[in-house]
Each structure stands twice: as structure tokens, then as C-alpha cells.
Design goal:
Homodimer. With 608 residues, this protein is of the alpha/beta class. It has three domains: 243 residues, Aminohydrolase, N-terminal nucleophile (Ntn) domain (Glutamine Phosphoribosylpyrophosphate, subunit 1, domain 1, 4-Layer Sandwich), CATH 3.60.20.10; 197 residues, 3-Layer(aba) Sandwich (Rossmann fold); 145 residues, Rossmann fold (3-Layer(aba) Sandwich), CATH 3.40.50.10490. The chain is built from 18 helices and 25 strands. It binds fructose -6-phosphate.
């Protein structure tokens, strides 16, 4: 939520800010703005709308500033208007602030500041920071000290950057709960909400911890504690991603590129972890960790759906009782963590605030905690006993696709590893499953080859208002995920149901205007699902069926048929999720919608 960038160095800063914001725009795109120190003056430009609006506002201006910061907004407090865009400034227009997070006590602070004569121009929580800074600086504080004393007055989650006319060549950043990363370049320092924005300048990064303050200036960087102000050091780590990963590479959208990357993601996530001959799954990450007696998974959104598949796999392959909770619910319950429980937080970004809070709760209740994340440098990763890094690579499209795939593969590996270690799986069964798992990448390639079928079917959905997705067993979460993909990027109301539940209420919704998408792989539940699909035909719903390509019975009942390569039911979620991603993609694209940046969404949800 919200993207932040700050730079001090020899380059002209405006292009650095604009390019940085372009890479961070997936975090929010309601408005964009920048503050720079131009020839001794603080210049602030901000516009509602996407980054393009800011670019248009500064077009033709020849700025020479080399210190500055930028912000792309996902609105929380205050409507989407120019005045509510960041940066926010103090009464004199001499101090600028950008912020990601929510200041919970802003109203009290604002009232107090207004009483002292401060004039507010925005409806945001952030503006109080600029005025509190003004109070401190007017009282003689240095930029660093002013930022610390200001931050100590704030409740809630924040990462903010300050820049002031009186302190040229310096930016101070403070983090509590909202993510912020420092990029350590050669003779230049860059701060960003997320690593991809920094990769063009450096691969040496330091993720800020909660309670860190960092100052960047022409000499380098220095860390201080928010609590007591003492100075300390943090060592940079090197990230491997290259900047090209943040380009579309010929695809119309990042989402489409990321869908097509999935066969490689599967191979990369399996690489070095599975011996095809013996079926042995070796997970270095879990070395020294006993196989748990119970597992409690916390996650949100798409990661929650992957976790639902994970529960099925852990119970089926390792016979370990597993519960899955939305992190946003778990954190406000009184969960029971028994001895021998392993907590697993599943999060692509590693920064989802509810998932982080749920993991902390699990840990405080005595569970060993594992992170399944795509971001080894993330907060969730840092706070876990074990981190399983999914190898999805950088995911830019707001709708999660390849990271979901990598999470599924992670669960297959973990379930197989636990099942082998606790004696649930014998050598023969293990070898069989290993060979199934390693064949999935190729099967996904086959599905992607006929993406055109999904494009054609999607045309029928442009005018549809409601859709129902059904699956059963291990594919019930795939129905949930298919529906989520459709609603978040095409704005069609879509619901996923366990196929057997249809007749307990949702069937009342069905008629010739409500298409049903049925997931019907060969397997133990085939006949049950088949009958459930018949029930929808009887209500005149157009029926899209995903089934084995040779399945004549499925073809016979389908209005539209999506032929799938043969696969065992247990492994079908991997390949059956692909057509559903493509259906959503082509529907949204055909409707002319902004696939990579759907309205109201943000890739990393760092507010509650
Ligand atoms: C949907 C989507 C979201 C995320 C959710 C959790 O396509 O991307 O539902 O899955 O916000 O995010 P992470 O996995 O980063 O915790």
C-alpha cells in the first residue's frame, strides 16, 4: 500500500523518482507526487490519478535537483484529490513528508496542532507528521532528531521519509511496521518501499527493521534506534534479481507474462529439492526441525487459497491435522496452539500486516513458525524460525499468479517431506508422487499452448454480471481462486463453491445469464462433481468445463470445453488453475480494463 522512494546522490533525482514510482505503482495508484530540493528551494508537485498525471505536470521542466523523494498513493484517509496526494508539507512549505501506513492517533494530534495555529490543507493522517516536524525544527531540532521525536508521538503503522529545505542533501526515514528498504549504491543511497525500485542502482540492500531510523546523505547512511536514538550498523545483503525481471518482455501485461512463466517457476521451486529416482524430498530449510504433530496455517487472499490446497496435501500425504485461517481473523481470535504445533505463514510479499501479526501471535503462543514467502528479505521471513523461499521471481501484476503456483509446489514438497519423515509414505509411493510432481511443468506448458481457447471463451463473459466456479476436494480452493481472479481484474461478481454445496443455496442464483465454471478432473470425486454440474445445466446455466481432453462425457455436457492434459487428481490443482487465470486475464483485457493495476487494489497490503 503506497509506494515510497527517496534518493540522495549524484544523479538528477526527478528521473530516479519517476522510474522508481513506475516500479512501485503496483502498490497503489490513486495519486503520485514528489518533493525535491531544487536550487535551495523545496519544490513539491503532486497529482491525483496515475503516475502519468505527475509526469504530465512536470513535462518540459528542467530540474537539476539531486536530492528528492516520491510517493504513489493508495488512499486510506482522504479522498483521491490533489491536496490529499503526498508529499505533505508544513505551514511554511519548507518540510516535506511521504508516508505509507496509518497514523491511528492523527485526529488528536491534528486537533492539538490546529490549536497551536497550524493550518491543514489535506484530509490525510499523514499531514500531522509535517506539522509535528515543523514544531520540532522550529524549536531547534536537527532533521534526524525532529524525525525521531515526531515518530515517537505517532501510534499505528508507518514508514515515512522527511526532507527539509534547511537540511539540504539529507533524507531521514523511520519505520514502524510498514516496509522500507535501503539500497546502498556507490556514492548514492536510495530508499524504497520494495526492492525492485532499487535494482537499477544497486543489488546491496538493507531492509529496515521495526523501530529503525536511517539517514541518507552524500556520505552514505547511518542507522539509529527510534526508541533511544543510539547509532548502530546494519550489514547489507545482496539480492539476485535483475532489473529486467521488472520489464514486460514483449507481453501485453505483466500478468500475462507471469502466467506464462509458471512452468519455469515450477521447475525452479522443485530444483535441488527432489530426487526423481528415489522420490526423496530434501528440504534444507527444515533440517533440525521435527515433523510437527499439528499445523496451523495463516494467510490472506490468494495465499489463503494455496494454503487450503496445502491443508489437503498435508493431511493426505503426511496425515498431519492442519487448520487454515485467514490471518485477519486468526489474529483477533484466541487460537489454541498445542505442543508440537507448527505455524505456517504463507505470503508472497512477506509484508501483509495481518499475516505478520498472526505469525507473531502463533510464535507468542509457543509454535515454531515457518514462512512460505517469495521475499527472503521480508519482515515475515526475518521473524520466522524457518523460511521456505518460493522461486517465483519478481511478481509485478497485482493479481497473484506465479507466486500462487510456487506456493502450491512448496506445499507438495513440504507435505511429501513430512510424509516421508514421519513414515506415512513408503519408498514406492514417494517415487510415484515425485515423478508426478516433476511432470507438472511440462503439462503446464501444454495448457499454455492453447491459451487461445480461453481467449475465445472469455469473449462470452464481457457482458456477464455473475459467475459461479465449482470444484471439490483438492480443487475446491482452485474454484475459490478462479473466482477471485475473475472478480479482482474483470470486476465480474464471481463466487467459488464446493460443488456439493451448490444445492444448499447458491443454486437459486442460476439461470441462463449466470455461467458456471466446473473443475472436473478424473478421480475419486468425478461422478459426484459430474452430477453437481448436471444440476446447473438443468437450471439453464451456460457451463464451462475443465476436464481431461479425452473426456467425452464432459464434452457432451459442456457449453464450452477446456481440454486438459491427463493428471492425477491430487496434482490437478497445479494445471487446472492455469486456464482459470487465463479466463480472467482475457475477460479483463477484452473489457479494456487495466489488468495489472485493477481498481482499489494494491499488491502488498500493509494496512489492517
Ligand atoms: C490476489 C492477491 C491477493 C494476495 C493477498 C495476500 O490476486 O494477490 O489476494 O494474495 O493480498 O498477499 P501476500 O501473499 O503478499 O500476503
Amino acid at each position: 500500500m503506497c509506494g515510497i522512494i527517496g534518493y540522495v546522490g549524484p544523479r538528477k533525482v526527478v528521473p530516479v523518482i519517476i522510474e522508481g514510482l513506475r516500479k512501485l505503482e503496483y502498490r497503489g495508484y490513486d495519486s503520485a507526487g514528489m518533493a525535491i530540493l531544487e536550487k535551495g528551494e523545496l519544490v513539491v508537485v503532486k497529482k491525483r490519478g496515475k503516475l502519468k498525471a505527475l509526469e504530465e505536470a512536470i513535462e518540459g521542466k528542467e530540474y537539476t535537483a539531486t536530492t528528492g523523494m516520491g510517493h504513489t498513493r493508495w488512499a486510506t484517509h482522504g479522498r483521491v484529490e490533489d491536496r490529499n496526494a503526498h508529499p505533505h508539507v508544513d505551514c511554511k512549505g519548507a518540510i516535506a513528508v511521504i508516508h505509507n501506513g496509518i497514523i491511528e492517533n492523527y485526529q488528536v494530534l491534528r486537533d492539538g496542532l490546529i490549536e497551536k495555529g497550524h493550518v491543514f490543507v489535506s484530509e490525510t493522517d499523514t499531514e500531522v507528521i509535517a506539522h509535528l516536524m515543523e514544531e520540532q525544527i522550529d524549536a531547534g531540532a536537527d532533521l534526524l532528531d525532529a524525525a525521531r521525536k515526531t515518530a515517537l508521538q505517532l501510534d499505528g503503522a508507518f514508514a515515512f521519509l522527511v526532507l527539509a529545505k534547511a537540511f539540504p542533501g539529507r533524507i531521514v526515514a523511520v519505520r514502524r511496521l510498514s516496509p522500507l528498504v535501503l539500497g546502498v549504491g556507490v556514492g548514492e543511497m536510495i530508499l524504497g518501499s520494495d526492492t525492485p525500485a532499487l535494482l537499477e542502482y544497486t543489488h546491496r540492500i538493507i531492509p529496515l527493521h521495526d523501530g529503525d531510523i536511517v539517514e541518507i546523505n552524500d556520505k552514505g547512511y547511518a542507522f539509529y534506534s527510534l526508541e533511544d536514538g543510539h547509532a548502530f550498523d546494519r550489514t547489507p545483503m545482496t539480492v539476485q534479481w535483475n532489473a529486467a525481471a521488472a520489464e514486460k518482455q514483449g507481453y501485453k501485461h505483466f500478468m500475462l507474462k507471469e502466467i506464462h512463466e509458471q512452468p519455469v517457476v515450477i521447475r525452479d521451486t522443485l530444483y535441488g529439492r527432489i530426487d526423481i529416482e528415489s522420490g526423496h524430498v530434501e528440504l534444507e530449510e527444515f533440517q533440525g526441525q521435527p515433523v510437527p504433530d499439528h499445523i496451523s496455517i495463516v494467510a490472506a487472499g490468494t495465499s489463503y487459497h494455496a494454503s487450503r490446497v496445502g491443508k489437503y496435501l498435508l493431511e493426505e500425504l503426511a496425515r498431519i491435522p492442519t487448520e487454515v485461517s485467514f490471518s485477519s481473523e486468526y489474529r483477533y481470535q484466541r487460537p489454541i496452539v498445542r505442543p508440537g504445533t507448527m505455524g505456517i505463514a504463507v505470503t508472497q510479499s512477506g509484508e501483509t500486516i495481518d499475516t505478520l501479526a498472526a505469525l507473531r501471535l502463533q510464535r507468542s503462543l509457543g509454535a515454531k513458525v515457518v514462512a512460505i514467502t517469495n521475499r527472503p528479505e521480508s519482515t515475515v521471513s526475518r521473524e520466522s524460525d524457518v523460511t521456505f523461499v518460493t522461486q517465483a521471481g519478481l511478481e509485478i501484476g497485482v493479481a497473484a499468479t506465479k507466486s500462487f503456483m510456487a506456493q502450491l509446489i512448496a506445499f507438495y514438497l513440504i507435505a511429501l517431506n513430512f510424509g516421508q519423515r514421519n513414515g506415512t509414505l513408503d519408498a514406492e509411493t514417494s517415487a510415484h508422487y515425485a515423478s508426478q510432481l516433476s511432470s507438472l511443468s511440462q503439462k503446464c506448458e501444454q495448457v499454455l499452448e492453447y491459451a487461445g481457447i480461453m481467449e475465445t471463451i472469455a469473449r462470452k463473459f464481457y457482458k456477464v454480471h455473475d459467475m459461479i466456479y465449482v470444484g471439490r476436494g483438492v480443487n475446491y480452493p482452485i474454484a475459490l481462486e478462479g473466482a477471485l481472479k475473475m472478480k479482482e481484474i474483470s470486476y465480474i461478481h464471481a463466487e467459488g463453491y464446493a460443488a456439493g454445496e451448490l444445492k444448499h443455496g447458491p443454486i437459486a442464483l442460476l439461470d441462463e445469464d449466470v455461467p458456471v465454471v466446473g473443475i472436473l478432473p478424473k478421480g475419486a470425486l468425478y461422478e459426484k462433481i459430474y452430477s453437481n454440474l448436471q444440476e446447473s445445466i438443468a437450471r439453464d446455466s451456460p457451463l464451462v468445463v475443465l476436464a481431461d481432453r479425452k473426456d467425452k462425457r464432459a464434452q457432451a455436457i459442456a457449453t464450452d470445453f477446456i481440454p486438459m492434459p491427463p493428471v492425477e487428481e491430487l496434482f490437478s490443482p497445479v494445471i487446472y488453475s492455469l486456464p482459470l487465470q487465463l479466463l480472467a486475464y482475457y475477460t479483463a483485457d477484452g473489457k479494456g480494463l487495466d489488468v495489472d493495476q485493477p481498481r482499489n487494489l494494491a499488491k502488498s497490503v500493509t494496512v489492517e
